[in-house]
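Lab meeting, item 3. Inverse folding demo.
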């Protein structure tokens, strides 16, 4: 009775951990030479992107606790997010939670009572439409708070982004501590992926890296075999099962006809080598190429979400532009130096299909268990939420639960079947 989890991104890691906790034998297969998916560490140790969590990401935080890594994620800006507006050069701190906006010093520009009420309405399941259209009467508040929130959470410009998807985010920000911003102290490798793999190995999970699933063989309405090409073929017994925790395009290749998003949006990340004894800091910029700047002792990382224009630009021009902006923000908020004018060495990572485009309208809704012994996982399989770490973890746990429900249903059907008389010796 083995469950084969295909894909070692966050969804696959969460599914494997949940299944192992239920006493199942688990084999985790990953096509890449490293685990983590979009939350992986690169070969030089840097992250592929600037990933953050908030207090409302309860499933992700529980996952961190289960792998013993919760203390590795820190709150870099407890006094409010430092934001530099390049339009006028103003520097201010902005609280992410509207509950803190009673303090005018932490209130975003344009946050009038009517603007905040318009934002609150988006948390209601009303008519779906682009966020920019819904906030058109409050342009300054939209520019300074709503648009950055939409791009960060949905990776989609607010002129195209779904109000209902944003509403799912807003409803989770209402509780105390829900808007606390958390980042990995050292990086995704040491603070997320490595502890997850270590926990899985201690639980007896077999981990196979660098093996891509070439073909999924279905017979009799069930997953019957997994063909890994040179990695070998795995025949599935009657009690064996599969979690397919792969990107939507891979899932469609393996299971043709699966409803899955086809339109994706890129994210561009720039990693500057700037080793310095400095605390972890997180800054925001408006009217800039850079949107979020994460400063760690090992270097500085920049994220450009909804980065279709940046993805088309050459790294040779991106890096100097980004460094000039983030240097200006670092100096504005007095971050410890040095911050030279010349940019340090930079690595540019372009994720061209980072997330689905979260546009208005009903998203594709795949079945959680399209075959009796196969469940799907991946942030895109929870279309009510944006494609984030939280959605990935929740989807992995949901896939594990779905297979458990399938086993119970099969056992119930077996118990209800008539019992055959035992065969007599000799026939």
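The presenter then showed the designed sequence:
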């Amino acid at each position: 009775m083995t469950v084969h989890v295909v894909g070692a991104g966050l969804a696959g890691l969460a599914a494997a951990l949940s299944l192992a906790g239920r006493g199942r034998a688990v084999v985790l297969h990953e096509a890449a030479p490293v685990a983590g998916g979009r939350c992986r560490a690169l070969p030089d140790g840097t992250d592929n992107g600037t990933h953050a969590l908030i207090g409302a990401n309860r499933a992700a935080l529980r996952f961190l606790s289960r792998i013993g890594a919760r203390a590795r994620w820190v709150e870099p800006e407890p006094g409010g997010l430092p934001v530099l507006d390049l339009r006028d050069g103003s520097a201010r701190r902005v609280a992410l939670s509207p509950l803190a906006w009673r303090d005018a010093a932490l209130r975003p520009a344009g946050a009038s009572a009517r603007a905040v009420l318009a934002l609150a309405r988006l948390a209601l399941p009303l008519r779906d439409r682009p966020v920019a259209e819904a906030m058109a009467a409050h342009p300054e508040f939209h520019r300074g708070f709503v648009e950055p929130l939409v791009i960060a959470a949905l990776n989609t410009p607010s002129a195209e982004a779904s109000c209902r998807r944003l509403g799912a985010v807003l409803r989770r920000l209402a509780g105390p501590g829900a808007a606390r911003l958390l980042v990995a102290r050292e990086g995704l490798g040491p603070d997320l992926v490595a502890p997850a793999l270590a926990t899985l190995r201690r639980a007896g999970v077999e981990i196979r890296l660098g093996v891509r699933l070439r073909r999924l063989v279905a017979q009799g309405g069930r997953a019957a075999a997994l063909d890994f090409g040179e990695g070998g073929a795995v025949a599935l017994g009657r009690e064996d099962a599969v979690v397919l925790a792969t990107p939507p395009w891979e899932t469609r290749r393996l299971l043709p006809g699966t409803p899955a998003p086809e339109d994706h949006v890129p994210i561009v990340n720039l990693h500057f080598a700037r080793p310095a004894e400095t605390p972890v800091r997180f800054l925001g910029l408006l009217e800039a190429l850079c949107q979020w700047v994460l400063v760690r002792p090992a270097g500085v990382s920049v994220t450009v979400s909804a980065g279709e224009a940046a993805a088309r630009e050459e790294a040779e021009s991106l890096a100097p532009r980004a460094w000039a902006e983030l240097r200006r923000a670092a100096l504005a908020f007095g971050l410890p130096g040095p911050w030279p004018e010349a940019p340090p060495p930079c690595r540019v990572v372009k994720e061209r299909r980072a997330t689905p485009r979260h546009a208005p309208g009903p998203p594709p809704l795949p079945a959680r268990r399209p075959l009796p012994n196969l469940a799907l996982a991946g942030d895109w399989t929870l279309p009510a939420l944006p494609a984030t770490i939280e959605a990935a973890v929740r989807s992995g746990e949901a896939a594990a639960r779905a297979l458990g429900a399938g086993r119970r249903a099969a056992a119930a059907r077996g118990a209800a079947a008539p019992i055959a008389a035992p065969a007599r010796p000799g026939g």
